[in-house]
Amino acid sequence: TPSTTPSMDQYQYRAVFTNSQGSTNTNAAILTVQYAPIISSQPMAHTVSVPSTATFTASATANPSASVQWQLSIDGGSTWNNIMGATSTSYTTPSTTPSMDQYQYRAMFTNIVGSTNTNAAILTVQYAPIISSQPMAHTVSVPSTATFTASATADPSASVQWQLSIDGGSTWNNIMGATSTSYTTPSTTSSMDQYQYRALFTNGVGSTNTNAAILTVQYAPI
Hints:
The chain is mostly beta strands. Helix content is 0%, strand content 50%. The protein has strands at 11-13, 16-19, 22-25, 29-31, 35-41, 46-49, 55-57, 59-63, 67-73, 81-82, 90-92, 103-110, 115-117, 121-133, 138-141, 147-149, 151-155, 159-165, 173-174, 182-184, 195-202, 207-209, 213-218.
């Protein structure tokens, strides 16, 4: 034969002998071609919201048949580790958490001839904002200003709205135009003493507000 390829597996060959009296052929001889796994179906990327699961599926052709092992990378594909027990052509994650966002999954198919892995499939986990930096209380003297700062992680990214309470946190109202991660008060007055400020972060999954930060305004006797 020429150099074999996977497509030649199970080809049959026979010889035909011919003379002036007639022709006779041999029995068919089967050619079995063993080859390393060839990926026939790649796993697809998934986007889910906490705490939903995601299922990745892959397939490969091989001779002899291949075993499969799913692998996980939590560092952008630099290193890969086997997922214990994930040895079928489909793998379902546990309930997702925000820390699993951008995890990558792939399947490794192996037989006696060699091993082949699929492309990496990225898991995008959407989750409500998680506060990563709380606003701090401030003490200023009239007529100084005070600047409050907060941050949050979220997927998809979150918008921010600063809110004000003038009744000790019982009710909150949006501050017009205060939609960045920092908010600076106007020049303070004595009436602003003990005002409370917080940031509300919102995305398509949900909303989360920071702790309240108290503004203490010092002023001369009135």
